[in-house]
Every structure is written in structure tokens, then in C-alpha cells.
Amino acid sequence: MSTDQEEQLSSYENQVQYYTDMIKNNPEYELVDIYADEGISGTNTKKRDEFNRMIDDCRLGYIDIVVTKSISRFARNTLDCLNYVRELKEKGICIIFEKENINTLDAKGEVLLTILSSLAQDESRSLSENCTWGIRRRFEQGKHKTSTKRFLGYDYDPETEKLVVNREQAKVVKRIYEEFLNGLTVDMIARMFKVEKVKSWDGNSNWQPSAIDSMLRNEKYMGDVILQKSYTTDFLTKKRVMNTGELQMYHIEEDHEPIIDKETWNAVQQEFERRDLFMKEHRINAYAQEPETNPLFGKVICGECGATYGRVTYKNRSGTVVRKFRCGSCNKANGRKVCSNRYILEEAIIKLFKMGWNAIAEHPKKYESVWKKNLKSGNELLCYKTRQIMEAAKKGPIQEFDPWLMIRVMDIITVYESGNLTIRFYDGTEFSYEAV
User: Fold this and answer.
1) CA separation (Å) from 133 to 136, 139, 261, 352?
2) Concatenated DSSP letters for 238-285?
3) Domain match, 114 and 191 both
4) CB atoms closer than 10 angstroms to residue 346
5) Which of 42, 167, 205, 224 would be a feasible disulfide site paired with 76, CB 3.0-4.6 Å?
6) Domain assignment present for 74
């Protein structure tokens, strides 16, 4: 038997007691076990652990007779029902459906079973449609219930039926958004959190990049909820797919207390778009790779062909380690013109960044008009990045190269075959220099 409604759940113990007594009071029966899936629909057998355990026991020869309340308790999927009935029948195992008074070993049993199981499947379909209709009516009214089992940053209040902020977990959520807008990738954040043993929703530190990516795109962190982002395509298989416009979605604004303000959340979405466009324009598969060891990855661009520069490390004749950057397409000839742009030493790139940044940090008043214009632009990402540069500039010029500062404030360095170099910061400020 399976129980898929609340009133059936409440009578679960009664059903177990009924069948236990019935079998024990029949001298011809010997009870093997009671198999019952609580709160599980009978439309699909994949998630019915007890049902599958019963079938396994049948296959092992432990069971001669299966007694069930009705066809709908056994399976509402006609194909599943008939397949299992026929399999057990071949093994000489009888299934008795009490409500329909069917014994599967009878000659007429399968014909009647086919008709009645089809009706049970249709009943399940109708029930599924009614449930779906009810859920969508609730969506239209802005009513919903969100599971917080795997949802870092929020708990669920059953009295108000609202999400409430978990203050301790919210600190981690805020940091994820900050680190992403500091220029880190989801892979880097995941690695960093594992090393620092930052706890996730389950108390462990096994962070996955995909989970962080999902958090950064989740509108619930800014206090909104989008309902019906996915839907069930088949009531039998329970297969769910993403809603890409097939059904109406419902966007509820200010549904609960936010952890991330809307400007920051929007800035993150714009940053995703900017990085995707950057990778497409410069023909790379990753925005950054291990910035802790190679912070300049993806930061140096060829001004001739648009490809990114890659680092090359070797030892010269004197044994000195040399690190150069060269155009990524300079040694490619697969239908694309081989680029002849020049190499550039890593130390020259670092020197160029320090010169450009110190020009800003030493004379911040020269850039105040640009910053004010940016802050009034209405572009959330540009506003966020501009504030980052303003705050960093308050600390003054740097003496030593700070890779994390560079990742946070610098957009790209462009290398031209003429020898000119251009450095651009995220606030739009640019400097041009001769090669050094």
C-alpha cells in the first residue's frame, strides 16, 4: 500500500494493523512483512522503496501471495501495474486486490485488471491536474511555500509562511556576492571556502562551483520570488523541465526580507553577462584560471587579433626564470591568420598596472567628475565597480604589486604591435604607455 494524502497518512497505523491482524488470523497465511510507502504517489515505482523491496522479496521466493487494498494502492501506472502482475504471475505469485475483488491467478483477472488499472491511471491524471490547478491559483495570489532544506541564508516560519533570514548563514551569502564582484570566479570562491572550512547549508565545507553559481542567480536573496520556474511534463514519470516560456511565471517583489540589496544583485547579473560576452569576444572558455597563481590570465588582450595573451615560463641560458606573455593565436594556423604581435614580459605588465593605479590613487580628485557621472549612470555594475575603485584609492599608492587589487579594479591591458600599451580600469579610466 502507498499513502499519498494527509488523511491517509493519519490512518497509516490503522492500515498496518488491519493487514497484520487479517493475515495472522488466517491459519493458511504466514506474514512475511508489511510493505508501505508513506506519502508517496503510486504513479511511478522508481521512488517507492518499500514497493521495490516487496518485488525483490517476491523474486527471491519469500512471498507466495500479495494482498493489497486496491489497484490504485498497488500502482496507478497501467504499464507498471500489468508488468509487475505478469512477472509475479509467471513465478506463481498471486496478487489479491481487495476492493476490486480480483485474484491475478484467475483466468479473467488480467482482463478486468487492465480495465480497472487504466481507470486508476486516469484517476491519478485527474488528481494531478487538479493539484496543478490549485498550485497555479495559489501562485496567482502570490502564495507559495519554499523549502529551506538546501537553501543557505534563510529559514521558514510556518506561522507567517515566509522566509526569515538566518543571520549567521547570511554572512556567507553576502561574502559570496562580494567576492564575485571583487573579480573572483565561482571556482575560486569554492576552493577558497573549502580551504577556510566555511560551512554550507548542511554544516559541511564541500563547496561546489555550481551551487555558488546558482546562489548568485537566485532572486530570493534580494527578497523577490519567481514562481513556476520549472514544471512537470508527465504526471507518470514526474519529469520536470525548466520553464522557458511555455507557462506563465509569477514574479513577486518584496516577498520577504532580502539578504542582498537589489543594486548588488543586479550588478552580479550584469557581471555574469559581461564575463560571458568577454569570453565570446576573445575566444576563451574560462574567464579566469587559478588567479592565486596566475592573476593575469585573461587580463592581457592582443590589440591586433583580439585574442587573450597566455603566459609562457622558461629558463634562459643563465638559469633565470623568465615569464612572458604572448598572443594566444600567434602559433595557431587552423584557418585563422597567425598573429605576429609582440611578446611582453610579466614584469612589464606588473609595472604598467602599478603606474596606472598609482596615477589614480595619488590624484583621486582628478577623477571625481568621472566617478560622479558613473554613479548617476543607472548602471548597477558600473556604480558598484566605481565605488570599489573610490574606496581602494583612499588607501593611497602601492609600492608592491597586489594581485587581488588588480583583479578587483583593472579591466584589461591591450598590447599593440606598434609597441603601445593601454590599460583600462573598471570605471572607464584609460592610460596609454610605450612598451617598457
Assistant:
1) 5, 10, 34, 62
2) --EEE-SSSS--EEETT-S--SS-HHHHHHHHHHHHHHHHHHHHHT-S
3) no
4) 17
5) 42
6) yes
Task: Looking at the structure, tell me whether residues 112 and 42 fall in a common domain.
Answer: yes
Strand order through the sheet with 321-327: 309-315, 321-327, 344-345
pLDDT (tens place) for every residue of the chain, 436 residues total: 444 444 444 467 788 888 888 888 998 899 999 998 775 554 455 668 889 999 999 999 999 999 988 877 777 566 677 788 888 888 999 988 888 788 888 766 666 666 655 655 565 566 555 565 555 566 555 566 676 677 899 998 888 878 899 999 999 999 999 999 999 999 999 999 999 999 998 889 999 999 999 999 999 999 988 776 665 655 445 667 676 666 676 677 888 899 999 999 999 999 999 999 999 999 898 998 888 889 999 999 999 889 999 998 888 888 888 899 998 887 655 655 578 898 899 999 999 999 999 999 999 999 999 999 999 999 999 999 999 999 999 999 999 999 999 999 999 999 998 889 999 999 999 999 875 5
Q: Tell me how crowded residue 362 is: count the other CB atoms within 10 A of its CB.
A: 11
Same domain, 76 and 159: no
- d(CA 128, CA 234) in angstroms, rounded, equals 10
Mark whether 340 and 418 lie in a shared domain: yes
Whether residue 131 sits in one domain with residue 53: yes
Q: Which three cell numbers stand for residue 33?
A: 512483512
d(CA 370, CA 382): 11
Phi first, then psi: give them for residue 273, nearest 5 degrees. -65, -40
Q: Which domain holds residue 39?
A: 2-140
* Distance (Å, whole) CA 391 – CA 403: 17
Q: Examine the domain organization and report whether 169 and 232 are in the same domain.
A: yes
How many angstroms from the chain centroid is the CA of residue 212? Answer: 7
Q: Same domain, yes or no, for 195 and 310?
A: no
Q: 82-94 in b/e burial notation, b at 16+ Cβ within 10 A?
A: bebbeebeeeebb
- 285, part of any domain: no
DSSP strand pairing (344-345 vs 300-302): unpaired
Torsion of CA 176, 180, 186, 189, to 10 degrees: -60
Q: From CA 128, how far away is CA 145, in angstroms rounded?
A: 18
Instruction: Assign residue 238 the CATH number of its domain.
Output: 3.90.1750.20
Residue 279 located in a structural domain: no
Sign of CA dihedral 228, 234, 240, 242: negative
Residue 281 is assigned to a structural domain of this protein = no
- The total number of structural domains that make up the chain: 3
- Give CA–CA dist 214/151, Å, rounded: 11
